[in-house]
Amino acid sequence: MRNLYLPCASLRLLIPDILRNHETVIYLDTDIIVMESIQELWKEFGSFFSQTLIAGTSLFGEEDRDRQINSGVMLMNLTRMRQIQWTQKNLRIAQERPVVSVQVILL
């Protein structure tokens, strides 16, 4: 079984600790092309529930939304992620189960 927890892919899990002076972030993979105003995406933070940490899109449409997440486009509430010690918890998961992918951790 190959290691799915790649260092370059897992850096997004460290964003709350890397960007300490920011409350929210829109994370986009480098292969994402934004075709309309990014402002529309920023508005989505207003629809977060009080416990929402991350919002994303499913990989294959609405029918798959509970099983897969497209981790290449994520709205992240960094303040809430820091409050639950997000980075420390995910580093522990990576050490205990090195074959876990970023998408599995995000679910």
Summarize the structure.
The chain has 107 residues and is of the alpha+beta class.
| First-last Cα distance | 21 Å
Order of helices and strands: HHEHEEHHH
Number of helices, where a helix is a run of at least 4 consecutive DSSP H or I residues: 6
CATH class term: Alpha Beta
Task: Please tell me the overall pLDDT.
Answer: 79
Q: What do you see in this structure?
A:
Helices cover 32% and strands 16% of the residues. The protein has a single domain, classed as Spore Coat Polysaccharide Biosynthesis Protein SpsA, Chain A. The two termini are 21 Å apart. Strands 1-3-2 form a three-stranded antiparallel sheet. The mean pLDDT is 79. The chain is α+β, with helices and mostly antiparallel strands.
Topology:
Elements (H helix, E strand, L loop, with lengths): L6 H4 L4 H4 L5 E5 L10 H4 L11 E4 L12 E8 H6 L2 H11 L5 H5 L1
Antiparallel strand pairs: 1-3, 2-3
